[in-house]
UniProtKB/TrEMBL annotation, chain A:
Native source species: Acanthopleuribacter pedis
InterPro entries to which the protein is assigned, alphabetical: Cyt_c/ubiquinol_Oxase_su3, Cyt_c_oxidase-like_su3, Cyt_c_oxidase_su3-like_sf, Cyt_c_oxidase_su3_a-hlx
Lipid bilayer topology: Multi-pass membrane protein
Database matches in CDD domains: NorE_like
Keyword terms: Membrane, Transmembrane, Transmembrane helix
Alphabetical list of Pfam families matching this protein: COX3
Name by which UniProt lists this protein: Cytochrome c oxidase subunit 3 family protein
Automatic annotation (TrEMBL), chain B:
Pfam families: COX4_pro
Keywords from the UniProt entry: Cell membrane, Membrane, Transmembrane, Transmembrane helix
Domain of life: Bacteria
UniProt subcellular location: Cell membrane
Gene source species: Acanthopleuribacter pedis
Zinc recorded as keyword: no
Membrane topology: Multi-pass membrane protein
Entry GO terms, CC: plasma membrane
The name this protein goes by in its record: Cytochrome C oxidase subunit IV family protein
Bilayer-crossing regions: 20-39, 51-69, 81-101
Automatic annotation (TrEMBL), chain C:
Family: Belongs to the heme-copper respiratory oxidase family.
GO CC list: membrane
Keyword Flavoprotein: no
Keyword Transmembrane: yes
Positions of the Cytochrome oxidase subunit I profile domain: 20-525
Bilayer topology term: Multi-pass membrane protein
Protein name as it appears in the record: Cbb3-type cytochrome c oxidase subunit I
Coiled-coil intervals: none
Lineage: Bacteria, Pseudomonadati, Acidobacteriota, Holophagae, Acanthopleuribacterales
Pfam family, one: COX1
An example molecular function term from Gene Ontology annotations: heme binding
Gene3D superfamilies documented for this protein: Cytochrome c oxidase-like, subunit I domain
Length: 209, 145, 537
């Protein structure tokens, strides 16, 4: 019933030794699945957000009014820009353009740094003026969501820095090399962006502005 | 957002898009960000406010997924893993709302029932009826319905 | 059989801690998972025996009330998070999945070993809660960590929830790995509809692992933050909502019971046709009912909240949806029985376990219906009826299938046969002990005995006594069973490559398999269950 022959289509392999295409296909599906878990991870927080807002609309309106829309909007633009440069980095990797890949990864990293700085400018005055996690349900949700998002940004920055140094060795752009690493790094970074796209209006634009 | 077929290359590893697609997407994302800030200043009901904000955010997220993340070149397999968490999240949120909105409804019923009982009791005391008279009143109320 | 090749070396060969702990071979990782989960099965099982020993007689005999709470909490938490969730997928699944689809390994071998290390780390963190005086620091909230008690309890909630959070990553990594493996690494000719049903069930369970675990991760994280920073999201005093915790917790923890049972169903579907010498009945119905169960499992969590103050609307919606689980489950049971019908059945020990599974699991499923019914659930909720019900699924279902699967694949894993007579004695001891433990619990639960109580009224004494005697027999059975299996590893007869005459791919390679699984790439030309054809030939 089973006849043992060599596979013509290369579906039988250890992918570390197989053509880059295979690794590419593996990594990408794996990353999309991982992103699904991320969406649900933040989804639990969104559930808490909506339920608590439903219970305490006035607390949420007051808390949201306390936030700085300008800083939030600026941060949104900064993160969107870093998403653009990341998309361009993947594009450069696909075109095997090593110089542009390194440049774009560097730009993405700078964008992430900018996001961190603005986030710090937002958090610092709040933390010093007693708006702490636990001071009311809005600020608990605010710090949990933005804090967890921040952790994801930091993880992303670590990986972007790693790709930045790797890209300079030609690891992604040499003949026969796989750029799967850049592609999945890009997917992750865009998801961080997507989550922020939802967090921004939910937290900053609730009214009172 | 028509992409340039000249540049659209079915490579082994992913599809190469014309760079103009990325810039166009970015422009749209910025425009939508400004729009959502602008629209948020309008006076609407809280529900409407949330729906508009979430609607715009969904459009933005879709743009990112389709163009930045190359979602438009992905197979149904991948889209399955995009839709699955969204559907499950909608289920969680929907079920929570049915629960919380419904709970208020349950309380409402209890409150009115208690209030009616209380009023009936008060009435029967004012009318100076005996204790057994309550039943008669209740029956009368029922037959009125 | 290409067994006696000159350079054939079984995967077990290079021994030593270093060779095993840093391996990326799926077979070794599966075995390491097996040793680990069995270790925790032993500890958690001893806790259960402690609980039952205390309940021999009413009043306080062995442990005080806090000690009793600690025992059942440890039993539940270790069994759920450390034993039964990784139970079948990470052990038999890891070992068999690549073999069954004709691959050399899983898609991400290094993530696979990372998953095991993360599991060990999580287990150590959970055990870290046991550092400190038992009286004040051992967890006593029950494995569900319900708020508000878990916020207020002075015991080690943080290490256990943090451990469960970490274990979630191990679960997600395994699930993701399996999904990519099944999508991308099937041997030539191994189409979706030729895959063994165990692989289908692993696929469904992996989907749940990947999609449900993140929600409990964030829930437990919020609980930890609640205790560390007092964020108040689950605390009614601060404007939060304790029922939200129950909702989010069960959004994971109900689907998770299908992570436990689906691979068990897959094991049974593998064993039945081999010992009935008949093709599996209703292949596609069984395969798709696995997916259907995975799907429906996400929409029924509310039945755990029927008496928690949930709204009436939610109650009847969730009650209705819960009944829907019965449909795909019953489809499976009928198809298994259809497989046995007119087969030439031989009751060797794996088959005994498979049939035992069908019997016990059917009881488990049918006793779930009164719990799904709103009116009866109000009476039965949080009684021993519930305890008996889920032990029939968890132990009568998953553990019986795991043990049956271990018997079935033991010759493949170690290349040695166990003693058949002892295995059969072990099965019957388990079967009798198990039923003696839990049938009385159905009865006293129906009579109103609440669960999680250290003490009880005299009128429940007969049933509690019977249940405790059963539990001791049940515990004894595992020593017979695993004693026999461990004996086989060292002293058992050498097994041939395919001692049961199975047609599945994993039996077409030597026992134990070589490191690369197959000498040559297998090409699949037919489905796995063509048992009728082979008799004609």
């Amino acid at each position: 019933m089973f006849n043992h022959k060599n596979a013509p289509d290369g579906t039988f392999f250890n992918f570390h030794k197989e053509p880059p295409l295979v690794a590419y296909e593996f990594f990408k599906l794996g990353m999309w699945i991982f992103l699904a878990t991320e969406v649900l991870f933040f989804g639990g927080l969104f559930a808490a957000y909506f339920i608590l807002k439903y219970k305490w609309p006035e607390v949420f309106a007051a808390g949201s009014a306390y936030l700085d829309v300008k800083l939030g909007a600026t941060n949104t633009v900064v993160l969107l820009a870093s998403s653009l440069t990341m998309a361009l980095a993947v594009d450069a990797a696909q075109r095997k353009n090593k110089g542009k890949l390194t440049l774009m990864l560097g730009a993405t990293f700078l964008g992430a740094c900018g996001f961190l700085v603005i986030k710090g400018m937002e958090w610092y005055p709040k933390l010093t003026s007693g708006k702490l996690p636990g001071s009311d349900v809005f600020f608990s949700v605010y710090y949990m969501t933005t804090g967890l998002h921040l952790i994801h940004v930091l993880i992303g920055m670590y990986y972007i820095a790693l790709m930045f140094f790797r890209s300079r060795t030609g690891r992604y752009t040499d003949e026969g090399a796989s750029h799967a690493g850049v592609e999945v790094g890009g997917l992750y970074w865009h998801l961080v962006d997507v989550i922020w796209i939802f967090l921004f209006p939910l937290l900053y634009l609730l009214g009172g502005h | 957002m028509g992409h340039d077929h000249h540049d659209d290359h079915h490579g082994e590893m992913g599809h190469i898009q014309a760079p103009v697609v990325y810039y166009g997407t970015f422009g749209a994302l910025i425009a939508l960000t400004l729009l959502t800030v602008f629209v948020a200043s309008f006076e609407t009901s809280p529900l409407m406010h949330d729906l508009i904000a979430m609607g715009i955010a969904t459009v933005k997220a879709t743009l990112v997924i389709v163009f930045f993340m190359h979602g438009k070149y992905e197979k149904a397999e991948t889209w399955g893993f995009i839709w699955a968490p969204i559907i499950l999240l909608a289920t969680l949120l929907g079920a929570l709302f049915i629960d919380y909105a419904g709970r208020q409804n349950d309380l409402y019923i209890e409150k009115t029932t208690i209030k009616e009982l209380y009023i009936n009791d008060a009435k029967s005391i004012l009318d100076g009826k005996e204790h057994g008279g309550d039943h008669g009143d209740a029956k009368k109320d029922d037959s009125d319905h | 059989m290409a067994t006696e090749n000159k350079e054939y070396s079984p995967y077990l060969e290079p021994k030593g801690f270093y060779n095993w702990f840093w391996t990326v071979d799926h077979k070794r990782i599966g075995l390491m998972y097996l040793y680990s989960i069995l270790f925790f099965f032993l500890i958690a099982g001893l806790c259960a025996l402690g609980v039952r020993a205390e309940l021999f007689y009413p009043g306080e005999q062995i442990v005080d009330h806090h000690g009793y709470n600690v025992l059942f909490t440890l039993h539940g938490a270790l069994m759920v998070f450390l034993f039964i969730v990784p139970g079948i997928p990470a052990t038999l699944g890891n070992f068999l999945l690549p073999l069954m689809i004709g691959a050399k390994d899983v898609a991400f071998p290094r993530l696979n070993i990372l998953s095991y290390w993360v599991y060990v780390l999580g287990a150590l963190v959970v055990l870290g809660s046991l550092i400190g005086p038992p009286g004040s620091s051992w967890l006593d909230t029950g494995w569900t960590f319900y708020t508000p008690y878990s916020i207020e309890s002075s015991t080690g909630v943080i290490p256990v929830t943090l451990g469960a959070f970490i274990l979630g990553f191990a679960s997600i990594l395994t699930g993701m790995n399996f999904i990519v493996t099944i999508h991308r690494m099937r041997a030539p000719g191994m189409t979706w509809h030729r895959m063994p049903l165990f692989v289908w069930s692993l696929y469904s369970a992996s989907l749940i692992q990947v999609l449900a675990t993140p929600v409990v991760a964030i829930t437990l994280l919020l609980l930890i933050m609640e205790r560390l920073l007092g964020i108040g999201i689950f605390s009614a005093a601060m404007g939060g909502d304790p029922i939200l915790f129950e909702n989010m917790f069960w959004f994971y923890s109900h689907p998770v019971v299908y992570i436990m049972i689906l691979p068990a169903m897959g094991v049974v579907a593998e064993i039945l046709p081999v010992f009935a010498r008949k093709p599996i009945f209703g292949y596609r119905a069984i395969a798709y009912s696995s997916l259907a169960i995975a799907l429906v499992s996400f929409f029924v969590w509310g039945h755990h909240l029927f008496v928690s103050g949930m709204s009436n609307w939610s109650r009847w919606i969730f009650s209705l949806l819960t009944f829907a689980v019965a449909i795909p489950t019953a489809i499976k049971v009928f198809n298994w029985i259809g497989t046995l019908y007119k087969g030439s059945v031989s009751f060797e020990s794996p088959m005994l376990y498979a049939c035992g599974f069908i019997f016990l699991f059917t009881i488990a499923g049918l006793t779930g219906l009164p719990l799904a019914t709103l009116a009866t659930d109000v009476h039965l909720h949080d009684t021993y009826f519930v305890v008996a019900h889920f032990h029939y699924t968890m132990q009568g279902g998953t553990v019986v299938a795991l043990v049956g699967g271990l018997h079935f694949w033991w010759p493949k894993i170690y290349g040695r046969m166990f003693n058949e007579t002892v295995a059969q004695v072990g099965f019957w001891t388990l079967f009798i002990g198990f039923n003696a433990t839990f049938i009385p619990q159905f009865i006293m639960g129906y009579q109103g005995m609440p669960r999680r109580y250290a003490d009880y009224l005299g009128e429940f004494h007969d049933m509690h006594f019977l249940s405790s005697v059963g539990a001791m027999i049940n515990g004894l059975a595992y020593f017979i069973i695993f004693g026999n299996l461990i004996w086989a590893v060292y002293k058992g007869k050498r097994a041939s490559a395919n001692p049961y005459g199975s047609l599945s791919l994993e039996w077409q390679t030597p026992s134990p398999p070589p490191l690369t699984n197959f000498d040559e790439v297998p090409t699949v030309t037919d489905w796995t269950y063509g048992y009728g054809d082979e008799q004609k030939a």
